[in-house]
């Protein structure tokens, strides 16, 4: 006889609102190729870079979210480099370390990685090992380290600009083997060790860096040495490390909110110290590998936090979480959101460039009515004027972050529409003309990536009115050809990275607006899901990744209707979101899908700024029963 559950199935609890995530944890990933401690780390959970072991070698390894494969070899073998690296898998930086047998007690050599090979950068001012590095390849900061034998902690701080190191304000406490995370203008140093003659000290001190000075932050719950870390100044994570008391090596995980530390609801499966980490990971998605348990381990662990400690807005599309009833849900990226008015631009303009984050945005160039060279920074509430672009232009594009940005292409004059091939770099204080120029001069192009690994695609090319489908890849110095767009277009928008980019919208050669989307994998473009609204955007912006992007504003041509509609992309399809407060075209943007920024645009909205907050939804994937 059939029983009740065979006839009726399982009873499933229903929810009147989105379920609240409640579980965080570490899970096993693919084993690291070496089991020795001291691996330097960079990148994210699904695109990490590890170096150093085994045995003071020149090896590097790349992680794709599942397994490790060999990367390019450094020119300088090195060890004792656990915190010496920063950046991403395609734009990393390593400095210092120690070579064994050691002719010196530390190295000055700096090397840069482009995703396949290492090249020499500017030497560090002093011999250094067990260094403490954070930021990007072109805007890094190194603080402290060990600069002598048998061990002398230093508190010297230096900045790297992509070619050379310069002195900056010293951190307060001399130490090495600390946990660092953040960027050059908003970073954190916590814990560490000082092995001075007659004094071996573990630290619980936290210091915060704003790009010019160090200030005290909230202390760690316990002194900790050689822990690993990821995240930002206001959302950091630290895991593992060595403590002076029992149990010594730990697997604890703690979070930093910009003020204080608190325990996070997960522990590494294997307690470890001196391990590698995804330095550009987030508080909710990071990676740990190798290290000393003791003994040494080659295990990799992936961290995912969908608990109440995690901000739901930062979840990635496809992330799975559980609620207390054991129902399993999948975050889709679709959902609702809202726009709110932010601080007005100081200089009214349209067809401008934009990049950065909602709390660290950058606006540059544009027309109103003549070409502008004005540049402004946004801090989350107001805009501040900064030194101007070297070349005034509109219909220009950009990519990167506020302290390491790139502006490229554009028109020098609306009355004489000749496209530019010039490139400029912004370092957080000034613009400089870059040596590399685009092979195809263009305007109204799409852009994506970071200062040392960027993309330019599509656009209006010389001689006008030719429209380009070409793609060019940027390495921080020069441009080279990439795969061509499938759909020739201009006035499109871009987001993502050099190896995982998104291009969408725009105008085709008959000046008809497009809804089509294309995805770039580092060599070729393929079709993605179409937008719900055909639109051209003119103003270039980066709002998200290849799988979590947003589109807003723009114009529907030939209908010539200005749009206030917002859409979100989840890697497969677009869904409509909250409408902007003011419909406009010719605007620019910055930020992520979760926290976006729109600014400038056609009259009378040339100074208007709006901030977007996205709330994703969760859908049932499976149900576990007992």
CATH class of the largest domain: Mainly Beta
Percent range of helical residues: under 10%
Instruction: Give the DSSP E fraction (strand runs of 2 or more residues).
Output: 35-45%
Total number of distinct structural domains = 2
Descriptive account of the structure:
The protein has 626 residues and is mainly beta. The chain has 2 domains: 27-305, 6 Propeller (Neuraminidase); 334-622, Kelch-type beta propeller (Neuraminidase, 6 Propeller), CATH 2.120.10. The protein has 1 helix and 54 strands. The strands form 15 sheets. It has a 5-stranded antiparallel beta sheet, with no helix packed on it. A hairpin with a 2-residue loop joins strand 20 and strand 21 (235-242). It is elongated.
Question: Which helices and strands appear, and what pairs or packs with what?
Answer:
Layout: H1 4-8, E1 24-28, E2 40-44, E3 47-51, E4 60-63, E5 68-70, E6 85-88, E7 91-95, E8 110-113, E9 118-120, E10 133-136, E11 139-146, E12 153-160, E13 165-168, E14 179-183, E15 186-190, E16 193-196, E17 199-202, E18 206-209, E19 214-216, E20 228-232, E21 235-242, E22 249-256, E23 261-267, E24 276-277, E25 285-289, E26 300-305, E27 320-322, E28 327-341, E29 353-357, E30 360-364, E31 375-378, E32 383-386, E33 397-401, E34 404-408, E35 423-426, E36 431-433, E37 442-443, E38 446-450, E39 453-457, E40 460-461, E41 471-474, E42 479-481, E43 493-497, E44 500-504, E45 517-520, E46 525-527, E47 549-552, E48 555-556, E49 561-562, E50 566-569, E51 574-576, E52 588-591, E53 595-599, E54 609-623
């Amino acid at each position: 006889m059939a029983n009740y559950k065979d006839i009726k199935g399982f009873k499933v609890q229903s929810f009147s609102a989105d379920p609240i995530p409640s579980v965080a944890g570490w899970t096993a990933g693919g084993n690291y190729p070496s089991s020795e401690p001291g691996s330097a780390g960079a990148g994210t959970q699904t695109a990490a870079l590890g170096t150093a072991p085994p045995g003071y070698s020149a090896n590097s390894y790349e992680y794709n979210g599942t397994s490790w494969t060999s990367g390019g070899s450094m020119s300088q073998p090195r060890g004792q480099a656990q915190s010496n690296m920063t950046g991403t898998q395609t734009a990393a930086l390593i400095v210092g370390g120690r070579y064994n047998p050691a002719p010196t007690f530390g190295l000055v050599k700096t090397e840069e990685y482009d995703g396949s090979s290492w090249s020499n950068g500017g030497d560090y001012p002093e011999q250094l090992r067990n260094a403490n590095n954070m930021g990007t390849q072109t805007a890094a900061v190194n603080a402290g380290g060990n600069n002598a034998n048998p061990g002398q902690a230093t508190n010297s701080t230096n900045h790297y600009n992509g070619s050379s190191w310069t002195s900056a304000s010293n951190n307060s406490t001399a130490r090495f083997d600390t946990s660092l995370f953040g960027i050059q203008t908003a970073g954190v140093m916590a814990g560490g060790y000082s092995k001075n003659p007659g004094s071996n000290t573990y630290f619980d001190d936290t210091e915060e860096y704003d790009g010019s000075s160090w200030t005290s932050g909230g202390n760690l719950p316990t002194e900790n040495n050689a822990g690993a870390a990821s995240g930002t100044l206001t959302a950091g994570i630290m895991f593992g490390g060595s403590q002076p008391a029992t149990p010594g090596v730990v697997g604890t995980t703690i979070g930093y909110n910009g003020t204080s530390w608190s325990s996070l609801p997960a522990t590494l499966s294997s307690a470890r110290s001196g391990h590698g980490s995804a330095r550009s990971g987030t508080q909710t998605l990071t990676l740990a590998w190798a290290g000393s348990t003791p003994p040494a381990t080659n295990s990799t662990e992936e961290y995912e936090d969908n608990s109440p400690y995690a901000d739901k807005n930062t979840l990635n599309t496809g992330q799975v979480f559980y609620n207390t009833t054991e129902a399993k849900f999948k975050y889709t990226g679709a959902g609702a959101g809202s726009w709110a008015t932010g601080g007005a631009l100081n200089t009214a303009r349209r067809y401008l460039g934009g990049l950065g984050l909602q709390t660290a945005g950058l606006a540059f160039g544009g027309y109103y009515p003549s070409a502008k060279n004005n540049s402004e920074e946004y801090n989350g509430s107001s805009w501040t004027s900064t030194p101007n672009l070297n070349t005034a232009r509109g219909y220009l594009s950009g990519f990167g972050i506020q302290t390491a940005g790139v502006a490229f292409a554009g028109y020098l004059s609306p009355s004489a529409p000749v496209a530019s091939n010039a490139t400029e770099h912004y370092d957080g204080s000034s613009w400089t003309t870059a040596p590399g120029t685009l092979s195809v001069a263009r305007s109204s192009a799409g852009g994506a990536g970071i200062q040392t690994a960027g993309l330019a695609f599509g656009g209006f090319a010389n001689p006008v009115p030719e429209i380009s489908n070409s793609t060019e890849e940027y390495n921080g110095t020069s441009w080279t050809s990439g795969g061509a767009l499938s759909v020739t277009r201009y006035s499109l928008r871009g987001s993502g990275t050099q190896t995982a980019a998104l291009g969408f919208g725009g105008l085709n050669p008959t000046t008809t607006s497009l809804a089509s989307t294309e995805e770039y994998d580092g060599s070729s473009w393929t079709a993605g899901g179409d937008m719900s609204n055909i639109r051209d955007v003119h103003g270039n912006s980066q709002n998200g990744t290849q799988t979590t992007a947003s589109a807003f504003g723009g114009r529907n041509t030939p209908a010539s209707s200005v749009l206030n509609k917002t859409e979100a992309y989840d890697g497969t399809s677009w869904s409509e979101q909250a409408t902007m407060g003011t419909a406009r075209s010719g605007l620019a943007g910055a930020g992520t899908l979760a926290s976006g920024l729109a600014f400038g645009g056609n009259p009378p909205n040339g100074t208007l700024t709006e901030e977007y907050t996205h709330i994703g939804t969760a859908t049932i994937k499976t149900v576990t029963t007992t």
